[in-house]
């Protein structure tokens, strides 16, 4: 190292002739710095490969079970609906003919006034409306067992009504016959 | 002893690594003037030098976790400032190494420098050198890098760094004598 070099190195501090604008520079620096870490050390689970694998498996299983549940639910609903409809058909085939036959008998009866017939049939119409409503409810599949029960009760009521009516007719017939014999 | 130097401001550095803003500001305060002067010697323009210093501190603090006390914090930071300055100069197409047609024909015999030479004249003389010579004089004489380090910074061979430095120094002495 020659004298010139030595001289410069010894007086290096004299080359620092500038003063930085500290506050201006710091405000610009601060805005570019990352946010400070929190005091508690954060372990980024999602950056661990094992966690990634576990998360993928978990999501896949979740999706699979969701699809499964919805498919099974749909299938169950269909089977339930089918069973209910089958039962309804059975009920209908049993009672419908019976009711229709008895209604026919009532209509044919000569001993009933048209007013009596009308009154009886209006009861039957009301029960018909109720039956239609129950049928709609059954399709909604809320509680098919109870609805089917209600349908059976509906039919039974019709039969009961008809039976009562027929009983009345018969009893009046008996009375008429008795009269004849009395005479 | 060397280990102690390497760990200068260790507690401030460690706190800064955790994002402690006060510790970062204290480090900044300790080094900002030195870094600004380095940058001014390289860039010569105040605004450019400020940009380099700002960017260097941001990069240093945001990447402090990669600082492993292999050098002092100051020399680590200084290297960031130097590299950023060189990159900026390259972007501005200002030569950072002497180019052939800038080379001066230097007499073989070395001339002695007057002992009472004014530092201000040396600073002025450096400013009158071609850009490539200035960089090599600054890096070797003032910043204290050796030719291997300079070869890395300027992406030249160490022997080129050596020969260019000698040419630059001789030219500087010539200029200073005339001032």
TrEMBL record, chain A:
<protein>
    <recommendedName>
        <fullName>Anti-sigma factor</fullName>
    </recommendedName>
</protein>
<keyword id="KW-0812">Transmembrane</keyword>
<keyword id="KW-1133">Transmembrane helix</keyword>
<feature type="transmembrane region" description="Helical">
    <location>
        <begin position="50"/>
        <end position="72"/>
    </location>
</feature>
<keyword id="KW-0472">Membrane</keyword>
From TrEMBL, chain B:
<dbReference type="Pfam" id="PF04542">
    <property type="entry name" value="Sigma70_r2"/>
</dbReference>
<comment type="similarity">
    <text>Belongs to the sigma-70 factor family. ECF subfamily.</text>
</comment>
<protein>
    <recommendedName>
        <fullName>RNA polymerase sigma factor</fullName>
    </recommendedName>
</protein>
<keyword id="KW-0805">Transcription regulation</keyword>
<keyword id="KW-0731">Sigma factor</keyword>
<keyword id="KW-0238">DNA-binding</keyword>
<feature type="domain" description="RNA polymerase sigma factor 70 region 4 type 2">
    <location>
        <begin position="123"/>
        <end position="172"/>
    </location>
</feature>
<dbReference type="InterPro" id="IPR014284">
    <property type="entry name" value="RNA_pol_sigma-70_dom"/>
</dbReference>
<dbReference type="InterPro" id="IPR036388">
    <property type="entry name" value="WH-like_DNA-bd_sf"/>
</dbReference>
<dbReference type="InterPro" id="IPR013249">
    <property type="entry name" value="RNA_pol_sigma70_r4_t2"/>
</dbReference>
<dbReference type="InterPro" id="IPR013324">
    <property type="entry name" value="RNA_pol_sigma_r3/r4-like"/>
</dbReference>
<dbReference type="InterPro" id="IPR000838">
    <property type="entry name" value="RNA_pol_sigma70_ECF_CS"/>
</dbReference>
<dbReference type="InterPro" id="IPR007627">
    <property type="entry name" value="RNA_pol_sigma70_r2"/>
</dbReference>
<keyword id="KW-0804">Transcription</keyword>
<dbReference type="InterPro" id="IPR039425">
    <property type="entry name" value="RNA_pol_sigma-70-like"/>
</dbReference>
<dbReference type="InterPro" id="IPR013325">
    <property type="entry name" value="RNA_pol_sigma_r2"/>
</dbReference>
<feature type="domain" description="RNA polymerase sigma-70 region 2">
    <location>
        <begin position="27"/>
        <end position="93"/>
    </location>
</feature>
<dbReference type="Pfam" id="PF08281">
    <property type="entry name" value="Sigma70_r4_2"/>
</dbReference>
């Amino acid at each position: 190292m020659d004298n010139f070099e030595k001289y410069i190195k010894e007086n290096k501090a004299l080359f620092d002739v500038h003063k930085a604008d500290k506050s201006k520079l710091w405000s610009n620096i601060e805005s570019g710095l990352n946010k400070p870490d929190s005091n508690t050390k954060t372990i980024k689970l999602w950056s661990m490969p094992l966690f990634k694998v576990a998360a993928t498996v978990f999501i896949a299983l979740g999706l699979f079970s969701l699809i499964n549940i919805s498919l099974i639910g749909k299938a169950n609903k269909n089977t339930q609906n089918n069973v209910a409809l089958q039962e309804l058909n059975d009920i209908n085939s049993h009672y419908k003919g019976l009711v229709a036959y008895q209604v026919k008998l009532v209509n044919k009866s000569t001993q009933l006034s048209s007013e009596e017939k009308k009154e009886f049939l209006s009861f039957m119409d009301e029960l018909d409306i109720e039956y239609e409503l129950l049928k709609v409810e059954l399709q909604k599949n809320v509680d098919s067992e109870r609805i089917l029960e209600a349908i059976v009760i509906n039919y039974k009521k019709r039969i009961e009504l008809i039976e009562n009516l027929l009983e009345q007719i018969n009893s009046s017939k008996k009375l008429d016959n008795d009269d004849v014999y009395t005479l | 002893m060397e280990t102690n130097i390497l760990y200068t401001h260790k507690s401030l550095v460690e706190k800064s690594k955790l994002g402690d803003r006060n510790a970062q500001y204290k480090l900044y305060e300790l080094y900002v003037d030195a870094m600004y002067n380095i940058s001014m010697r390289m860039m010569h323009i105040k605004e450019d030098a400020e940009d380099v210093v700002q960017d260097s501190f941001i990069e240093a603090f945001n990447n402090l976790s990669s600082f492993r006390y292999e050098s002092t914090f100051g020399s680590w930071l200084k290297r960031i400032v130097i590299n950023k300055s060189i990159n900026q100069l390259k972007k501005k197409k200002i030569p950072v190494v002497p180019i052939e047609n800038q080379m001066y024909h230097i007499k073989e015999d070395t001339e002695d420098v007057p002992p009472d030479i004014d530092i201000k004249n040396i600073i002025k003389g450096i400013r009158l050198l071609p850009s490539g010579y200035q960089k090599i004089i600054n890096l070797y004489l003032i910043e204290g890098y050796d030719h291997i380090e300079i070869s890395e910074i300027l992406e030249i061979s160490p022997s080129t760094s050596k020969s260019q430095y000698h040419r630059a120094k001789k030219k500087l002495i010539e200029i200073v004598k005339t001032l």
